[in-house]
Amino acid sequence: MKPGFLILAVSSAAWAQSQSPAADARRQMLGGRETTTVAAFEEMPAGNYDYRPSPEQMTFGRLAAHIAESNNFFCSGAGGAPQPKTEKFEGTEGKEKLVAAIRASFEFSRTPLLKADDSRL
């Protein structure tokens, strides 16, 4: 192998590496996280949204509201986009509204995450 070829091959491999590997990983994980998170909240019976594993922990409904709020906050910051105008949820709004809020937050997340790079994470 000629020395010039080896240098070119190493340079090409370095160039192909991502400039934002953490953001790339987030984008790659989003679909799976959306599927499993939405499925978990759909599976829980509506009457159990007030379930609390211990007195110190939030209810299942509050967890749903927290996930929706966190998705919107994190992804807007990571992608440099304004947070969507959404209703403020307490976790007591009922299963249908909370699942819809989680779905909407994942739908919103897709666009800002396309623009995200590691410097914003």
Please describe the biggest sheet, giving its number of strands, its sense, and whether it closes into a barrel. Answer: none
User: β content, as a range?
Assistant: under 5%
Total of domains: 1
Give the overall shape, derived from the CA principal axes. Answer: elongated
CATH topology-level name: Four Helix Bundle (Hemerythrin (Met), subunit A)
CATH secondary-structure class = Mainly Alpha
pLDDT < 50 runs, ≥5 residues: 6-15
CATH architecture: Up-down Bundle
User: Which structural class do the helices and strands define?
Assistant: mainly alpha
Helical run tally: 4
Q: What's the overall average pLDDT, rounded?
A: 85
Separation of the first and last Cα atoms: 42 Å
Measured on Cα atoms, how large is the radius of gyration? 20 Å
Q: Strand tally, please? A: 0
Order of helices and strands: HHHH
The CATH superfamily appears as dinb family like domain
Helix content class: 55-70%
Can you tag this structure with a few keywords?
64% helix, 4 helices, mainly alpha, elongated, 121 residues, Four Helix Bundle (Hemerythrin (Met), subunit A)
